[in-house]
Amino acid sequence: MAKEETYSVVSDLVSFLNASPTAFHAVDEAKKRLRNAGYEQISKREDWKLEVGKKYFFTRNHSTIVAFAIGKRYVAGNGFHIVGAHTDSPALKLKPVTKVTKCGYLEVGVQTYGGGLWHTWFDRDLTVAGRVIIREEKESSLSYLHRLIRIEEPIMRIPTLAIHLDRDVNNEFKVNTQNHLIPVLATSVKAELNKVVAENGPVEKGSQGDGKNSSEKTSSNKLKHHSLLLQLLASQIGCEPDEICDFELQACDTQPSLVAGAAKEFIFSGRLDNLCMSFCSLKALIDATSSESSLSDEIGIRMVALFDHEEVGSKSAQGAGSPVILNALSRITNSFISDSKLLEKAIQRSFLVSADMAHALHPNYMDKHEDNHEPKLHGGLVIKHNANQRYATNAVTSFIFKEIATKHNLPIQCKSTKSLAFYSS
Protein backbone atom coordinates (compact mmCIF):
# COMPACT_ATOMS: atom_id res chain seq x y z
CA MET A 1 0.00 0.00 0.00
CA ALA A 2 1.37 3.40 -1.00
CA LYS A 3 2.27 5.90 1.70
CA GLU A 4 -0.45 8.32 0.57
CA GLU A 5 -3.07 5.56 0.61
CA THR A 6 -1.95 4.42 4.07
CA TYR A 7 -2.24 7.97 5.40
CA SER A 8 -5.73 8.24 3.90
CA VAL A 9 -6.91 5.04 5.62
CA VAL A 10 -5.43 6.05 8.98
CA SER A 11 -6.94 9.52 8.70
CA ASP A 12 -10.31 7.95 7.91
CA LEU A 13 -10.00 5.64 10.94
CA VAL A 14 -9.27 8.60 13.23
CA SER A 15 -12.31 10.40 11.82
CA PHE A 16 -14.43 7.31 12.52
CA LEU A 17 -13.12 7.12 16.10
CA ASN A 18 -13.82 10.79 16.76
CA ALA A 19 -17.35 10.44 15.37
CA SER A 20 -18.09 7.43 17.60
CA PRO A 21 -17.97 8.22 21.34
CA THR A 22 -20.68 5.58 21.96
CA ALA A 23 -22.06 2.48 20.23
CA PHE A 24 -25.06 4.55 19.11
CA HIS A 25 -22.80 7.06 17.39
CA ALA A 26 -20.69 4.29 15.83
CA VAL A 27 -23.78 2.77 14.23
CA ASP A 28 -24.99 6.18 13.08
CA GLU A 29 -21.61 6.84 11.44
CA ALA A 30 -21.70 3.37 9.83
CA LYS A 31 -25.17 4.11 8.42
CA LYS A 32 -23.94 7.34 6.82
CA ARG A 33 -21.02 5.56 5.18
CA LEU A 34 -23.18 2.70 3.93
CA ARG A 35 -25.80 5.03 2.47
CA ASN A 36 -23.08 6.99 0.67
CA ALA A 37 -21.90 3.67 -0.79
CA GLY A 38 -25.34 2.81 -2.15
CA TYR A 39 -26.61 0.54 0.62
CA GLU A 40 -30.35 0.55 1.28
CA GLN A 41 -31.74 0.43 4.81
CA ILE A 42 -34.34 -2.25 5.46
CA SER A 43 -36.46 -2.88 8.56
CA LYS A 44 -36.71 -6.14 10.49
CA ARG A 45 -40.36 -5.28 11.15
CA GLU A 46 -41.27 -5.47 7.45
CA ASP A 47 -41.11 -8.03 4.67
CA TRP A 48 -37.84 -8.09 2.77
CA LYS A 49 -37.91 -7.91 -1.01
CA LEU A 50 -34.27 -8.53 -1.83
CA GLU A 51 -32.58 -8.67 -5.22
CA VAL A 52 -29.29 -10.15 -6.38
CA GLY A 53 -26.59 -7.57 -6.97
CA LYS A 54 -28.11 -5.19 -4.40
CA LYS A 55 -26.75 -3.94 -1.05
CA TYR A 56 -28.65 -3.60 2.22
CA PHE A 57 -28.31 -2.96 5.95
CA PHE A 58 -30.47 -3.00 9.08
CA THR A 59 -30.00 -1.99 12.69
CA ARG A 60 -31.07 -3.31 16.07
CA ASN A 61 -31.54 -0.92 19.01
CA HIS A 62 -29.57 1.72 17.05
CA SER A 63 -26.41 0.13 18.52
CA THR A 64 -26.00 -2.98 16.35
CA ILE A 65 -25.80 -2.91 12.57
CA VAL A 66 -25.67 -5.65 9.92
CA ALA A 67 -24.79 -4.85 6.29
CA PHE A 68 -24.69 -7.27 3.36
CA ALA A 69 -24.22 -7.36 -0.40
CA ILE A 70 -25.83 -10.09 -2.50
CA GLY A 71 -23.78 -11.51 -5.34
CA LYS A 72 -25.32 -11.42 -8.80
CA ARG A 73 -24.83 -15.19 -9.13
CA TYR A 74 -26.26 -15.93 -5.70
CA VAL A 75 -28.91 -18.63 -5.31
CA ALA A 76 -30.61 -19.65 -2.08
CA GLY A 77 -28.45 -22.10 -0.16
CA ASN A 78 -25.14 -20.49 -1.10
CA GLY A 79 -22.87 -19.36 1.70
CA PHE A 80 -22.30 -16.16 3.63
CA HIS A 81 -18.87 -14.57 4.07
CA ILE A 82 -19.12 -12.68 7.36
CA VAL A 83 -16.86 -10.45 9.43
CA GLY A 84 -18.10 -9.78 12.96
CA ALA A 85 -16.91 -7.01 15.29
CA HIS A 86 -18.42 -4.94 18.10
CA THR A 87 -19.35 -1.30 18.62
CA ASP A 88 -19.16 -1.07 22.42
CA SER A 89 -16.19 -0.41 24.70
CA PRO A 90 -15.73 -0.30 28.50
CA ALA A 91 -17.22 2.91 29.85
CA LEU A 92 -18.83 4.68 32.77
CA LYS A 93 -22.55 4.68 32.08
CA LEU A 94 -24.95 7.03 33.80
CA LYS A 95 -27.27 5.37 36.30
CA PRO A 96 -31.09 5.53 36.01
CA VAL A 97 -30.93 8.00 38.89
CA THR A 98 -27.86 10.21 38.46
CA LYS A 99 -28.58 12.87 41.06
CA VAL A 100 -25.88 12.82 43.74
CA THR A 101 -25.39 15.76 46.11
CA LYS A 102 -22.62 15.70 48.70
CA CYS A 103 -21.10 18.44 50.84
CA GLY A 104 -21.97 21.23 48.42
CA TYR A 105 -21.10 19.37 45.22
CA LEU A 106 -23.36 18.18 42.42
CA GLU A 107 -22.16 14.80 41.19
CA VAL A 108 -23.35 12.40 38.50
CA GLY A 109 -24.01 8.80 39.46
CA VAL A 110 -22.33 6.32 37.10
CA GLN A 111 -21.79 2.57 36.94
CA THR A 112 -18.98 0.62 35.33
CA TYR A 113 -19.67 -1.13 32.03
CA GLY A 114 -17.35 -3.91 30.88
CA GLY A 115 -13.83 -4.64 32.05
CA GLY A 116 -12.25 -1.21 32.09
CA LEU A 117 -9.04 0.18 33.53
CA TRP A 118 -10.96 2.42 35.88
CA HIS A 119 -7.96 4.18 37.42
CA THR A 120 -7.31 5.76 34.01
CA TRP A 121 -10.60 7.67 34.20
CA PHE A 122 -9.37 9.96 36.96
CA ASP A 123 -8.39 13.57 36.17
CA ARG A 124 -9.73 13.53 32.62
CA ASP A 125 -11.87 16.17 30.94
CA LEU A 126 -15.16 14.34 30.68
CA THR A 127 -18.46 14.96 28.94
CA VAL A 128 -21.54 12.84 28.19
CA ALA A 129 -22.84 11.22 25.01
CA GLY A 130 -25.43 8.65 24.03
CA ARG A 131 -29.10 8.71 23.15
CA VAL A 132 -32.08 10.57 24.56
CA ILE A 133 -35.76 9.75 24.19
CA ILE A 134 -37.78 12.96 23.84
CA ARG A 135 -41.48 13.73 23.65
CA GLU A 136 -42.59 15.90 20.75
CA GLU A 137 -46.04 17.38 20.24
CA LYS A 138 -47.10 18.79 16.88
CA GLU A 139 -50.63 19.77 15.89
CA SER A 140 -52.14 17.80 18.79
CA SER A 141 -50.14 14.74 17.75
CA LEU A 142 -47.78 13.21 20.31
CA SER A 143 -44.68 11.25 19.31
CA TYR A 144 -41.52 9.96 20.97
CA LEU A 145 -38.17 10.27 19.22
CA HIS A 146 -34.69 8.78 19.58
CA ARG A 147 -32.04 11.49 19.41
CA LEU A 148 -28.27 11.16 19.55
CA ILE A 149 -26.48 13.60 21.80
CA ARG A 150 -22.91 14.59 22.47
CA ILE A 151 -21.88 17.60 24.52
CA GLU A 152 -18.55 18.65 23.06
CA GLU A 153 -17.09 20.66 25.93
CA PRO A 154 -15.90 19.05 29.18
CA ILE A 155 -18.61 19.34 31.83
CA MET A 156 -17.35 17.04 34.57
CA ARG A 157 -14.28 15.41 36.08
CA ILE A 158 -13.32 12.63 38.49
CA PRO A 159 -10.61 14.21 40.66
CA THR A 160 -8.07 12.11 42.52
CA LEU A 161 -7.36 12.74 46.19
CA ALA A 162 -4.35 14.96 46.93
CA ILE A 163 -1.27 12.98 47.95
CA HIS A 164 -1.13 14.99 51.18
CA LEU A 165 -4.28 13.16 52.31
CA ASP A 166 -3.10 9.69 51.26
CA ARG A 167 0.67 9.23 51.46
CA ASP A 168 0.44 5.53 50.54
CA VAL A 169 -1.42 6.05 47.27
CA ASN A 170 1.67 5.38 45.14
CA ASN A 171 2.27 2.07 46.90
CA GLU A 172 -1.27 0.78 46.79
CA PHE A 173 -4.00 2.41 44.72
CA LYS A 174 -7.35 0.62 44.75
CA VAL A 175 -10.38 2.18 43.11
CA ASN A 176 -13.65 1.94 44.99
CA THR A 177 -15.92 2.26 41.97
CA GLN A 178 -18.98 2.96 44.12
CA ASN A 179 -17.53 5.81 46.17
CA HIS A 180 -14.52 7.24 44.33
CA LEU A 181 -15.55 7.00 40.67
CA ILE A 182 -18.24 9.69 40.71
CA PRO A 183 -17.80 12.65 38.34
CA VAL A 184 -18.19 16.16 39.75
CA LEU A 185 -20.59 18.28 37.70
CA ALA A 186 -20.63 21.57 39.62
CA THR A 187 -20.89 23.12 43.05
CA SER A 188 -24.42 23.54 44.34
CA VAL A 189 -23.88 27.28 44.89
CA LYS A 190 -22.76 27.91 41.29
CA ALA A 191 -25.49 25.71 39.88
CA GLU A 192 -28.10 27.69 41.81
CA LEU A 193 -26.77 30.98 40.47
CA ASN A 194 -26.68 29.73 36.89
CA LYS A 195 -30.17 28.29 36.69
CA VAL A 196 -31.69 28.88 33.27
CA VAL A 197 -35.16 27.53 33.85
CA ALA A 198 -37.38 29.07 36.52
CA GLU A 199 -38.38 26.93 39.45
CA ASN A 200 -42.01 26.72 38.25
CA GLY A 201 -40.83 25.02 35.02
CA PRO A 202 -41.68 25.74 31.37
CA VAL A 203 -45.12 26.67 30.11
CA GLU A 204 -47.48 23.72 30.06
CA LYS A 205 -48.34 22.38 26.62
CA GLY A 206 -51.65 20.81 27.43
CA SER A 207 -52.61 17.18 27.80
CA GLN A 208 -49.73 14.73 27.27
CA GLY A 209 -51.87 11.63 26.97
CA ASP A 210 -50.60 9.87 30.09
CA GLY A 211 -52.30 11.77 32.89
CA LYS A 212 -49.29 13.95 33.75
CA ASN A 213 -48.74 17.56 32.80
CA SER A 214 -45.37 19.12 31.98
CA SER A 215 -44.65 20.42 35.47
CA GLU A 216 -45.29 16.99 36.97
CA LYS A 217 -42.90 15.40 34.48
CA THR A 218 -40.28 18.07 35.16
CA SER A 219 -40.56 17.45 38.90
CA SER A 220 -40.21 13.70 38.35
CA ASN A 221 -37.05 14.17 36.32
CA LYS A 222 -35.64 16.62 38.86
CA LEU A 223 -35.92 13.97 41.53
CA LYS A 224 -33.68 11.68 39.45
CA HIS A 225 -31.30 14.11 37.75
CA HIS A 226 -29.80 17.50 38.46
CA SER A 227 -31.66 20.33 36.72
CA LEU A 228 -28.33 21.60 35.43
CA LEU A 229 -27.64 18.31 33.63
CA LEU A 230 -31.13 18.23 32.14
CA GLN A 231 -30.75 21.81 30.94
CA LEU A 232 -27.42 21.00 29.28
CA LEU A 233 -28.99 18.03 27.49
CA ALA A 234 -32.07 19.96 26.42
CA SER A 235 -29.99 22.86 25.14
CA GLN A 236 -27.86 20.51 23.06
CA ILE A 237 -30.87 18.75 21.52
CA GLY A 238 -32.99 21.85 21.10
CA CYS A 239 -35.89 20.87 23.32
CA GLU A 240 -37.28 21.71 26.76
CA PRO A 241 -36.00 19.81 29.81
CA ASP A 242 -39.51 18.48 30.51
CA GLU A 243 -39.58 16.90 27.03
CA ILE A 244 -36.76 14.51 27.98
CA CYS A 245 -38.40 11.19 28.84
CA ASP A 246 -35.34 9.01 29.36
CA PHE A 247 -31.77 8.52 28.21
CA GLU A 248 -28.85 6.12 27.86
CA LEU A 249 -25.71 8.16 28.37
CA GLN A 250 -22.11 7.50 29.25
CA ALA A 251 -19.12 9.54 30.31
CA CYS A 252 -16.68 10.26 27.47
CA ASP A 253 -13.19 11.69 27.32
CA THR A 254 -13.14 14.94 25.34
CA GLN A 255 -9.53 14.40 24.23
CA PRO A 256 -9.72 13.53 20.51
CA SER A 257 -8.16 10.53 18.82
CA LEU A 258 -5.06 11.37 16.80
CA VAL A 259 -1.98 10.03 15.03
CA ALA A 260 1.02 10.55 17.29
CA GLY A 261 4.45 9.37 18.38
CA ALA A 262 7.85 10.71 17.32
CA ALA A 263 7.56 8.82 14.02
CA LYS A 264 3.76 9.28 13.72
CA GLU A 265 3.28 5.52 13.89
CA PHE A 266 0.79 5.27 16.76
CA ILE A 267 -2.89 6.06 17.14
CA PHE A 268 -3.60 7.54 20.54
CA SER A 269 -7.25 6.81 21.22
CA GLY A 270 -9.78 5.18 23.45
CA ARG A 271 -12.29 2.65 22.11
CA LEU A 272 -9.83 1.04 19.70
CA ASP A 273 -11.27 -2.19 21.10
CA ASN A 274 -13.24 -2.59 19.00
CA LEU A 275 -14.00 0.41 16.83
CA CYS A 276 -10.79 -0.27 14.91
CA MET A 277 -12.10 -3.62 13.66
CA SER A 278 -15.57 -2.16 13.16
CA PHE A 279 -14.02 0.45 10.88
CA CYS A 280 -11.79 -2.02 9.04
CA SER A 281 -14.56 -4.54 8.38
CA LEU A 282 -16.98 -1.81 7.30
CA LYS A 283 -14.42 -0.23 4.98
CA ALA A 284 -13.52 -3.62 3.52
CA LEU A 285 -17.16 -4.35 2.70
CA ILE A 286 -17.71 -0.92 1.14
CA ASP A 287 -14.48 -1.06 -0.86
CA ALA A 288 -15.25 -4.60 -2.04
CA THR A 289 -18.68 -3.56 -3.35
CA SER A 290 -17.92 -0.09 -4.68
CA SER A 291 -17.81 -0.73 -8.44
CA GLU A 292 -20.56 -1.85 -10.79
CA SER A 293 -18.78 -5.13 -11.45
CA SER A 294 -17.90 -5.91 -7.80
CA LEU A 295 -20.69 -8.46 -7.39
CA SER A 296 -20.83 -9.78 -10.97
CA ASP A 297 -19.06 -13.07 -10.25
CA GLU A 298 -20.02 -13.36 -6.58
CA ILE A 299 -22.04 -16.49 -5.79
CA GLY A 300 -22.39 -15.80 -2.06
CA ILE A 301 -23.28 -12.94 0.25
CA ARG A 302 -20.72 -10.58 1.76
CA MET A 303 -21.71 -9.45 5.23
CA VAL A 304 -20.46 -7.38 8.15
CA ALA A 305 -22.09 -7.53 11.59
CA LEU A 306 -21.17 -4.95 14.24
CA PHE A 307 -22.67 -5.95 17.58
CA ASP A 308 -23.30 -4.15 20.84
CA HIS A 309 -22.68 -5.53 24.35
CA GLU A 310 -19.66 -7.73 23.59
CA GLU A 311 -17.94 -6.21 26.62
CA VAL A 312 -20.57 -7.68 28.94
CA GLY A 313 -21.12 -11.11 27.41
CA SER A 314 -23.01 -10.59 24.14
CA LYS A 315 -26.23 -12.03 25.59
CA SER A 316 -28.51 -9.04 25.04
CA ALA A 317 -31.16 -8.68 22.33
CA GLN A 318 -28.59 -6.90 20.17
CA GLY A 319 -25.51 -8.90 21.17
CA ALA A 320 -23.69 -11.52 19.13
CA GLY A 321 -25.33 -14.24 21.26
CA SER A 322 -28.80 -13.10 20.18
CA PRO A 323 -30.71 -14.46 17.14
CA VAL A 324 -29.84 -11.34 15.08
CA ILE A 325 -27.46 -13.06 12.66
CA LEU A 326 -29.32 -16.37 12.44
CA ASN A 327 -32.58 -14.54 11.74
CA ALA A 328 -30.86 -12.45 9.09
CA LEU A 329 -29.41 -15.50 7.35
CA SER A 330 -32.80 -17.17 7.46
CA ARG A 331 -34.69 -14.18 6.08
CA ILE A 332 -32.17 -13.56 3.32
CA THR A 333 -32.25 -17.22 2.24
CA ASN A 334 -36.04 -17.41 2.41
CA SER A 335 -36.40 -14.19 0.42
CA PHE A 336 -35.40 -16.18 -2.64
CA ILE A 337 -36.74 -19.68 -1.91
CA SER A 338 -38.82 -20.64 1.11
CA ASP A 339 -37.18 -23.91 2.11
CA SER A 340 -36.03 -24.47 5.71
CA LYS A 341 -33.43 -27.03 4.59
CA LEU A 342 -31.54 -24.41 2.57
CA LEU A 343 -30.56 -22.39 5.65
CA GLU A 344 -28.60 -25.27 7.18
CA LYS A 345 -26.97 -25.85 3.81
CA ALA A 346 -26.03 -22.16 3.57
CA ILE A 347 -24.53 -22.14 7.07
CA GLN A 348 -22.33 -25.13 6.25
CA ARG A 349 -21.05 -23.25 3.21
CA SER A 350 -20.32 -20.06 5.15
CA PHE A 351 -17.24 -18.62 6.83
CA LEU A 352 -17.15 -16.09 9.67
CA VAL A 353 -14.19 -14.12 10.99
CA SER A 354 -14.55 -12.71 14.50
CA ALA A 355 -12.45 -9.57 14.24
CA ASP A 356 -11.31 -8.14 17.57
CA MET A 357 -8.20 -6.40 18.78
CA ALA A 358 -5.11 -8.30 19.95
CA HIS A 359 -2.76 -7.01 22.65
CA ALA A 360 0.70 -6.31 21.26
CA LEU A 361 3.76 -7.07 23.37
CA HIS A 362 4.16 -4.41 26.07
CA PRO A 363 7.86 -3.54 26.56
CA ASN A 364 7.34 -2.90 30.29
CA TYR A 365 5.34 -6.09 30.96
CA MET A 366 6.92 -8.72 28.74
CA ASP A 367 6.20 -11.49 31.23
CA LYS A 368 2.44 -11.08 30.61
CA HIS A 369 2.72 -12.68 27.18
CA GLU A 370 3.03 -16.34 26.28
CA ASP A 371 6.48 -17.42 25.06
CA ASN A 372 6.67 -17.82 21.27
CA HIS A 373 3.24 -16.19 20.90
CA GLU A 374 3.99 -12.53 21.42
CA PRO A 375 2.21 -10.26 18.91
CA LYS A 376 4.40 -7.37 17.87
CA LEU A 377 3.61 -4.03 16.30
CA HIS A 378 4.32 -4.08 12.55
CA GLY A 379 4.13 -7.88 12.74
CA GLY A 380 0.88 -8.25 10.84
CA LEU A 381 -2.57 -9.67 11.49
CA VAL A 382 -2.96 -11.81 14.61
CA ILE A 383 -4.70 -15.17 14.71
CA LYS A 384 -5.83 -15.89 18.27
CA HIS A 385 -5.74 -19.41 19.69
CA ASN A 386 -6.95 -20.82 23.00
CA ALA A 387 -6.97 -24.51 23.93
CA ASN A 388 -10.04 -24.03 26.16
CA GLN A 389 -12.02 -22.79 23.17
CA ARG A 390 -12.46 -19.21 24.32
CA TYR A 391 -11.68 -18.55 20.67
CA ALA A 392 -13.19 -20.64 17.87
CA THR A 393 -9.93 -20.94 15.92
CA ASN A 394 -8.96 -24.44 14.76
CA ALA A 395 -6.54 -25.83 12.18
CA VAL A 396 -9.04 -25.51 9.34
CA THR A 397 -10.17 -21.93 10.02
CA SER A 398 -6.61 -20.82 10.75
CA PHE A 399 -5.39 -22.36 7.50
CA ILE A 400 -8.11 -20.69 5.42
CA PHE A 401 -7.40 -17.32 7.01
CA LYS A 402 -3.65 -17.65 6.41
CA GLU A 403 -4.19 -18.66 2.79
CA ILE A 404 -6.31 -15.56 2.17
CA ALA A 405 -3.67 -13.40 3.83
CA THR A 406 -0.89 -14.98 1.76
CA LYS A 407 -2.83 -14.32 -1.44
CA HIS A 408 -2.93 -10.64 -0.56
CA ASN A 409 0.65 -10.44 0.78
CA LEU A 410 -0.43 -9.77 4.36
CA PRO A 411 1.90 -10.85 7.21
CA ILE A 412 0.45 -13.13 9.89
CA GLN A 413 1.37 -13.82 13.52
CA CYS A 414 -0.23 -15.99 16.17
CA LYS A 415 -1.24 -15.39 19.76
CA SER A 416 -1.88 -17.87 22.55
CA THR A 417 -3.09 -16.46 25.86
CA LYS A 418 -2.12 -17.40 29.41
CA SER A 419 -5.45 -16.36 30.88
CA LEU A 420 -8.81 -15.48 29.39
CA ALA A 421 -10.88 -15.67 32.55
CA PHE A 422 -12.33 -12.22 32.02
CA TYR A 423 -13.08 -12.61 28.31
CA SER A 424 -16.63 -13.12 27.16
CA SER A 425 -16.03 -14.16 23.57
TrEMBL record:
MF terms (GO), sorted A to Z: aminopeptidase activity; metallopeptidase activity; zinc ion binding
Cofactor: Zn(2+)
The UniProt record lists the keyword Metal-binding: yes
Bias-annotated ranges (Polar residues): 210-220
Keyword Plastid among UniProt keywords: no
Region span, Disordered: 200-220
Pfam family, any one: Peptidase_M18
GO cellular component terms, semicolon-separated: cytoplasm
Keyword terms, alphabetized: Aminopeptidase, Hydrolase, Metal-binding, Metalloprotease, Protease, Zinc
Any one biological process term the GO annotation gives: proteolysis
Family (UniProt): Belongs to the peptidase M18 family.
PANTHER family: ASPARTYL AMINOPEPTIDASE (PTHR28570), ASPARTYL AMINOPEPTIDASE-RELATED (PTHR28570:SF16)
Protein name, UniProt field: Aspartyl aminopeptidase
Source organism: Quillaja saponaria
Organism placement in taxonomy: Eukaryota, Viridiplantae, Streptophyta, Embryophyta, Tracheophyta
